[in-house]
Amino acid sequence: MNPSPCIVVHSLGHPRIGAHRELKKAVEAYWNGKSPLADLEAAGRALRADHWRVQKNAGLDLVPVGDFSFYDSMLELSCLVGNVPPRFAYSHRAGEPVGSDTFFLMARGSRGEKTEKSEGRETCGCGHDHGAPAATRHACEMTKWFDTNYHYIVPEFHSGTRFALSSEKLFNDFEEAKAQGIAGKPVLIGPVTYLALGKVQDAANPTFDRLSLLDGLVAVYEEVLARLAKLGATWIQIDEPITALDLSAAQKAALKGAHARLAKAAAAHGLKLLVASYFGPLRDNLADFLALPANAFHYDAVRGEEEIDAFLAAFKEQAKGKILSLGIVDGRNIWKNDFDASLAVLRKAWAAVGEGNLWLAPSCSLLHSPVTLRNETSPSLDPELKSWLAFAEEKLDELAALRSFLLGTGDPAALEANRAAQAARRASPRIHNAAVARRLAAVTPSDARRVSLFRERQKLQRAKLGLPAFPTTTIGSFPQTAEVRAARAQWKKGTLSESSYEAFLEKEIAACVAFQDEIGIDMPVHGEFERNDMVEYFGEQLEGFAFTANGWVQSYGSRCVKPPILFGDVSRPRPMTVRWSAYAQTLTRRPMKGMLTGPVTILQWSFVRNDQPRSATARQIALAIRDEVVDLERVGLAAIQIDEPAIREGLPLRRADWAAYLAWAVEAFRLSASGVRDETQIHTHMCYAEFNDIIQAVADLDADVITIETSRSNMELLGAFANFNYPNEIGPGVYDIHSPRIPETGEMERLMEKAKAVLPPRNLWVNPDCGLKTRAWAEVKPALKNLVETAKRLRAGV
Ligand code: GLN
Ligand code: ZN
């Protein structure tokens, strides 16, 4: 510890995965039975020790403890408070702590029912979870943590839920840090956020009010505080990020009530509480937040930038004499901090809160940042690009540097270097492409409109395509077999020549098209064998993207993603998929569907520029995709699918911001889709089916055909489309690709009958829920045969 720092530097949480994804390796080895629990625990200790050492060396005065997990923090909290759903047969009444078996069972479901994939959950390949598949239905649900790409384990509540302190992990971690000479700051997700982000699972009492559980829950927090005080803790961080959401009056009251009790307990034990808000401005929650009886408040000054002056004014009024922890370094993006800009904000804050009351921190936990640039070897990240970036470890250094500049003890050369890096980035010709700017400026509203209205287009497309009723198609990808992955790896390594790799891909495409022809798929696809990933593949071919070798971020459990870095103006120097789609079309007389990823999804799954609005970046990507769409049409593709599985997850946290987001997201899609003639059929695909609140925007996309995920919900989720009288064509998925189970014809027919009952039969397609890349050919072949048979039966029935 720094003896008496005038400005405390701390962090809200550190990435857990390790600089070389050690966490993934250790956890998966344990799951696969390759190593005992003792090894996993040793790996955990080593990672924690390393993280604490790194943070201490960076000069942090307070180091988070309790932010580590082998899976997820919300799950840790459920175990801490003994909230284990009844099906896991754990009862805290026995006084036993929740063991690691129960912990992993909650995360992954029972082993007997697990089917494949070391992560224990299957994904459609988009890198995101879509709920627990049928085969692991006993696992707790998982969902996105706010608008990050991190997924947490959803706590379950029912009228019989009772809480009791049921895990020693937090206390053990605190002691472990102490042994390392670290006076840790325990981190807990707050009780109101915990209740708000869970779900009520109570068949007998579906309207059960979870807030009625608050008292019992807070009682456990009180016990936790007492225990931590005994161990020698001083500061406790309580995260209440729901303060960045729209809150009900009841939730606001719950915050007030819960934190009054927590503050009292803390004071009784000589502890101090830091309450943290992050991920957005506070707006109408500002006064309620600052009214909480905490000793310190953390504020996300990156996401809350628009509100900083109002926040500081309110702080002066409501929280005079308290401590402000300002989240000044972006915990969710990878850009180097602009010291001059940050110092301007910090000086303002310092003046408002007074000497000794300002702390510096990242905006949120660094969980959402890649670990370090230290080991970054990617050839795509040249020294110039690298000089613009900061990952978690570098962000800690930035905090320490900002403190030194504020205190006037900083190295002027370091400030100069930061200025130079910012200026270089701003002026770099690699970021600014005049042709892109000119093109954007020339975009007119008609560029985002098809020539004719859907009804007119539908006639022309029907005449051109000559498809039967209930046409069959797939979502694009076919099995990415070990052979396909091996060939790509060899080609990347240089051990397989370009021409051999291309010949290999052609062979795969030919076999895939022949199969679809043989079973009678009406609109075949080429199979996407050339793709590693649906965003990276396009990013690699577009201007403006860079790729890390090791920039992993935890997505859920042991699963990590490596988002591309979108650093500059986007353009498409040359066709990307045309070669494969054109080749595939030569192999069949049926209309081949070209396959692209849409602009919003590419944006959503990348680290994006912070020097222009997301909407502007989306438009640039849209124009690049538009070029590809037009080229696909030119070489003879009569149908082109533009996948947008991420439109929904891009929704802002506050309802009030939805309309503006949806307006530019829809415009970006339409811009990408509208360069073609009326008779060219534009498809889109979304990997979910909760459309109630965005159905107008989905309709506004004006795709000729949309395919969605519906099989697991038994078509119930089609309701939104039916109630809305959705006018365009629609393919409700009838084959659950998240499960290895092969659906029978009768079953798919029943699903389609349900769809027929609520939507005009003439607009219906028959297709799987999502891409088939994670499935095996042995499953795909019979399943698609049954799917084609389903369509035939439907046709016979009309
Ligand atoms: N075309 C992609 C595929 O079939 C779509 C994947 C997705 O939407 N996640 O794999
Ligand atoms: Zn999908």
| Tally of separate helices | 27
Give the total of beta strands: 21
Name of the level-1 CATH class of the largest domain = Alpha Beta
Largest sheet report = 8 strands, parallel
Poorly predicted spans? 111-137
Shape: globular
Q: Kindly state the mean pLDDT as a whole number? A: 94
- What name does CATH use for the topology of the largest domain? TIM Barrel
Bound molecules: glutamine, zinc ion
Q: Provide the β-strand percentage band.
A: 5-15%
Radius of gyration: 27 Å
Order of strands across the main sheet: 1-12-11-10-9-8-6-2
Structural class: alpha/beta
What would you say the CATH architecture of the largest domain is?
Answer: Alpha-Beta Barrel
The rounded distance between the terminal residues' Cα atoms is: 77 Å
Overall tally of structural domains = 2
- Which percent bin holds the helix content? 40-55%
Helix and strand topology:
Layout: E1 8-9, H1 22-31, H2 37-57, E2 63-65, H3 73-80, H4 100-108, E3 142-144, E4 151-153, E5 156-157, H5 169-179, E6 184-189, H6 191-196, E7 199-200, H7 214-231, E8 235-239, H8 249-268, E9 272-276, H9 286-290, E10 296-300, H10 308-318, E11 323-329, H11 339-353, E12 358-362, H12 383-386, H13 392-407, H14 412-427, H15 434-441, H16 454-465, H17 482-493, H18 498-519, H19 536-539, E13 543-546, E14 553-556, E15 559-561, E16 565-571, H20 578-586, E17 593-597, H21 599-604, H22 614-634, E18 639-643, H23 658-673, E19 681-686, H24 695-701, E20 705-708, H25 719-724, E21 729-732, H26 745-758, H27 777-797
Parallel strand pairs: 1-12, 2-6, 5-7, 6-8, 8-9, 9-10, 10-11, 11-12, 17-18, 18-19, 19-20, 20-21
Antiparallel strand pairs: 3-4, 13-16, 14-15
Helix pairs in contact: 1-2, 7-8, 10-11, 11-13, 17-18, 22-23, 23-24, 26-27
Bound molecules: glutamine and zinc ion (ZN).
